[in-house]
Design a protein that fits this description.
The chain is mainly α. The protein has 3 helices and no strands.
Amino acid sequence: MTKPVTLSDAAYEALTKVKGKDMSFSDAVLMLVEKSKQKRDFQRFAGMLKSQAPELEKFKEEIEGDRTRNVGKM
């Protein structure tokens, strides 16, 4: 089943660029929706490591120290 959809000129141009020549508008919309879902799935991890801040800060300092030592060897 198909449904007519109205897009602004800007939205049409943007969707045309996303879809390319080998993809239908429907496929382009589905692809963008899927990408949007994946992005939201990743956001569920935001803030999970706050309780481990001291350990993460120590790890960051170790990495920075390693970088400083390695730069001197170049």
